[in-house]
Amino acid sequence: MLSFKHFTVAVHDLDEAVTNYQARLGLSVVADKAHNNIGNFDFVVLGYEGKTFCHLICPSSEESPIYRLMQDRVNPLNPHGEGIYLLAFDTPSTDEVAKQVEAGGGRVNRAPNSSNVWVHPLSTNFVLMELFQGS
């Protein structure tokens, strides 16, 4: 069983995106700007009343996988390649869900020293999913 946790949006200007989400959706910053060294991106967590609603992420360099994904999405209507990057879910057992995905012919990646599991986008109609061990 999966329960929705949050979504992540790749943006080209983190400060501008935070301002937009605050003004247009009434979100507030739940966790200040931070850097993810593994993915080479900066991020801000936004939400309502202290509860996470979404993460906004911005590549820190052209070597970031987020940057490369955004470049693949560039088109006349989306000149920066912005958009949904990831959907995150809680599940009582990431191992059980991972086994189910693999039994159905899908691919997963497991994080070292973590219970988190990523379901490969080719397994879910081009949506990257992250599974968190939770409720």
Task: Describe the structure concisely for a colleague.
With 135 residues, the chain is an alpha+beta fold.
Structural description of this entry:
The chain is of the alpha+beta class and about 140 residues long. Helices cover about 25% and strands about 40% of the residues. The chain is built from three helices and eight strands; from the N terminus they run βαβββαβαβββ. An eight-stranded mixed β-sheet has the order 2-3-4-1-5-8-7-6. Strand 2 and strand 3 form a beta hairpin. The chain is globular and about 40 Å long. The mean pLDDT is about 95.
Notable traits:
135 residues, alpha+beta, 2,3-Dihydroxybiphenyl 1,2-Dioxygenase, domain 1, 8-stranded mixed β-sheet, 3 helices, 8 strands
What is the fold's blueprint, element by element?
Layout: E1 3-10, H1 14-25, E2 28-36, E3 41-48, E4 51-59, H2 65-73, E5 83-91, H3 94-103, E6 108-110, E7 117-119, E8 128-133
Parallel strand pairs: 1-4, 5-8
Antiparallel strand pairs: 1-5, 2-3, 3-4, 6-7, 7-8
